[in-house]
Amino acid sequence: MDKKKNTSSSEDSKSGISRRGFLRGAGLTTAGTILLSSDMLAFDAAENSAAGKMISADGVEIKMKINGTVQRLHVEPRTTLSNALRDRLGMTGTKVVCDRGSCSACTVFLDGKPVNSCLTLALDVGDREVTTIEGIADGEQLHPVQEAFIEEDASQCGYCTPGMVMSCVHLVENNSNPTLADVKHATRGNLCRCGTYPHVFKATLSASKKMK
Hints:
The protein is α+β, with helices and mostly antiparallel strands. The chain has helices spanning 2-15, 19-51, 81-88, 144-151, 161-174, 180-186, 197-210; strands at residues 60-66, 69-75, 107-110, 113-116, 129-131.
């Protein structure tokens, strides 16, 4: 037994590394890694603190510009934009159907660009302006797309309609002469379980002509 120990010690000596030294080095490396990670986390926290308010589980006060009006509300970090609109501000025109970004029924505009509000945190809105289905009409005058949806019977159960209208509005306001292919592409993410796509396409093309 002693002979084996001596042989092992002799081999360690020849290699220049002893088992004790190796274990000590490994321990120091691990400790250094932990300290470095802690320092990095502390730096990140400090950086986030400098950039804005620290967010607690209880939530934070935020303000959002929605349909031209600044709204102030208290939200938890997990609150989505769709929930903030519907549950906190009473803007129930925005529908939540799948709640996972698969149907686009919850589509709103952020600085004029369509987004799924069920996938957008209220805290992430920042200074960007939110436009909902309630904000596309001009007072009592409906948007041409809304009028065309009524005329062409493009709404069935109605769950998908707000998001579908928002996608179509974005198209006609950014493309003065859309084709059928353009309309299909613009609404590719909007799911209609009733299958009224032909009416939606027709309504959008009709609205586009009236806006010229």
